[in-house]
Specification:
The structure holds two protein chains of two kinds. Chain A contains seven helices and no strands. By secondary structure, chain A is mostly helical. A six-stranded antiparallel β-barrel of chain B has the order 1-2-5-4-3-12. Chain B has a six-stranded antiparallel β-barrel with strand order 6-7-8-11-10-9. The chains are: A mainly alpha, B alpha+beta.
Chain lengths: 176, 316
């Protein structure tokens, strides 16, 4: 992963992180909440190489770990996203190109974001962090899944096109 | 299909995983450097959050209101129910307060007269059904109440017990058109007959045409044989107008009762009397005059200038 791509990735995820904190978190959703950050992360790494997937997961995880409202130890989100990125990288060939298959893309995003939340909760509980009751956690996860599913036609194609354009500019600049 | 990575990619993954585990370990061990990152993030995020809140709060509130419209309706219903309950409680408290004052007044009067009384709550007021003015009390013969006992309020005579059951009693009010009682004018001791007229005023007819009566005269019960139905000396009413028509055989006057007959919540039934005749001792006290503030003006004389000060002023 080149310095340009890394800086683009970091800048983009910082922007999404701020967008999540400043805008998305202000909206009271009918059920649960919506993690645009997680949805964007898994959209981003859906079409990247293995090494870049891990690096992206690490960057996204570190940013999530820096969320001021978290009680869990720093590094837990990084660990969770790295673990999931590893699983995604293992089955990337099976997933194929998601850009032309919106339903598969939506289901992939629902599965990955929900898994990320559940793995995070489980790991946090194992580390002795106070986690919400099972019912609350279930409702929040289900709510996030619903919004991820409903909004995926909006953000998934957008993220893919933005990513292609940003990295295409990088290739032109570097002469590649 | 499971994809296997190269050794370099695997090394990267392991390195990143170890880094994340190291961060977790450091945080759990309380390394302040790791924790301070979050504080720094908060400082960076705060302005963005403030702007976001200012811009998106109205939108968020709109969606929140839609989402919580059911809860808001429930809350509104609950608040309305609470308000209704509190208003009922307030009205009940006011009612109890009024009854307490009436009870205090009537017991005070009974105490001054040396009467043995039993207090009762008025449970019904009947003034129109059959042109009779009556009250129904919540006590009866089981409380020692019998026919022809006097019923008083804190201000004076209310009526006389007309009929009794074990747990209720009907009282004929002094305003009843068929009610008559012997009264005397406090001070002059002139006697007369007070008759109810079905309204808030009564007619007084003096027995002796030579007696005098004037507006403001207080009427007290004359007393009956064996103090039944009326013990003597009970306040009844006050003369409001006098009929001076010439040629009348007796002098008559219009009287207003002391007791507010239409708004009695608590009354007392006189069971027995200790004092034979309290004479005019039970007369209601006249209202205390409103104190007029005395205006005091303090005048401080201006000191006259002395000769020395005068000469100083002249010199300059």
């Amino acid at each position: 992963m080149s310095i340009y791509r890394t800086s683009i990735t970091v800048s983009f995820f910082v922007f999404i992180f701020i967008l999540q904190a400043a805008v998305i978190n202000q909206i009271p959703f009918f059920i649960g909440g919506f993690s645009l950050f997680l949805a964007v992360t898994f959209s981003w790494i859906a079409s990247t190489e293995r090494a870049e997937t891990f690096a992206t997961a690490f960057i996204a995880g570190i940013l999530l770990d820096l969320s001021p409202s978290l009680d869990a130890p720093v590094g837990l989100w990084t660990f969770t996203l790295l673990f999931l990125s590893y699983l995604i990288s293992l089955y990337r060939e099976s997933l194929g190109d998601l850009d032309g298959r919106p339903m598969t893309a939506a289901l992939y995003l629902v599965a990955t974001t929900s898994s990320a939340l559940l793995i995070y909760l489980l790991t946090a509980a194992l580390l002795g962090v106070d986690v919400p009751p099972a019912l609350t956690a279930g409702i929040d996860t289900a709510g996030n899944a619903i919004w991820t599913l409903l909004l995926s036609p909006l953000y998934f194609p957008l993220i893919n096109r933005l990513k292609l354009r940003l990295f295409a500019i990088g290739k032109i600049r570097s002469g590649g | 299909m499971v994809q296997r990575g190269s050794g370099r990619t695997r090394l990267l993954l392991v390195t990143l995983l170890v880094t994340s585990l190291l961060l977790i370990t450091l945080d759990l061990r309380g390394v302040s450097l790791v924790n301070s990152f979050r504080t720094g993030t908060q400082a960076i995020l705060r302005p963005f959050q403030s702007i976001g809140s200012a811009i998106f709060s109205p939108i968020g509130n709109f969606f929140g209101d839609i989402a919580n419209i059911g809860q808001a309706n429930e809350k509104l219903d609950q608040l309305e129910a609470d308000n209704k309950r509190l208003l009922e409680e307030l009205a009940e408290a006011e009612d109890i307060k009024g009854e307490l004052k009436q009870l205090k007044d009537v017991l005070d009067l009974a105490g001054r007269g040396g009467y043995k009384v039993v207090s009762a709550k008025v449970i019904a007021f009947d003034s129109s059904a059959n042109f009779e003015e009556t009250l129904t009390l919540d006590i009866g013969s089981s409380s020692g109440v019998t026919r022809d006992m006097t019923v008083i309020s804190g201000k004076g005579v209310v009526g006389v017990v007309k009929s009794v059951t074990s747990r209720s009693a009907i009282v004929q009010l002094i305003s009843d058109p068929g009610f008559k009682m012997g009264v005397r004018i406090a001070g002059t001791q002139a006697m007369g007959i007070l008759s109810g007229e079905g309204s808030s005023t009564f007619t007084l007819e003096l027995l002796d045409a030579r007696s005098t009566v004037k507006v403001g005269d207080v009427l007290l019960s004359r007393g009956s044989s064996g103090n039944r139905p009326f013990p003597p000396g009970l306040p009844v009413g006050v003369v409001t107008s006098v009929d001076d028509s010439t040629g009348a055989l007796t002098k008559s006057a219009t009287v207003r009762a002391f007791a507010n007959l239409g708004s009695q919540g608590v009354v007392s039934v006189i069971l027995s009397t200790k004092v034979d005749d309290p004479r005019d001792a039970l007369m209601p006290k006249p209202p205390a005059p409103t104190p007029v503030p005395t205006v005091t003006v303090f005048i401080t004389p201006t000191p006259e200038p002395t000769k020395k000060s005068k000469s100083n002023q002249e010199n300059g």
